[in-house]
Amino acid sequence: MACDARAVLLVTRQMEGTSTNVARQRIELYCSLTPGHAGPHRDEKHAQEWLVVKGRASMVVRDEDEDAQPRDE
Ligand SMILES: [Zn+2]
Most exposed of 7, 30, 38, 59 (fewest Cβ within 10 Å)? Predict the structure, then answer.
């Protein structure tokens, strides 16, 4: 049994030579933690955490630039 909270993850990429971010992938996230857990929800499969703001749709944006150097987060 899992918390099963849901969110949508938008993976964006910066267009070369511009400051425009375009969405390139849309992934549905499902929380795999136990029900009633503390802290943010987490989708282990996609290694993504998110917080729920009451009354708002859960939307997570992750910026992924394929040409960028690997960086620590
Ligand atoms: Zn959860």
Answer: 38
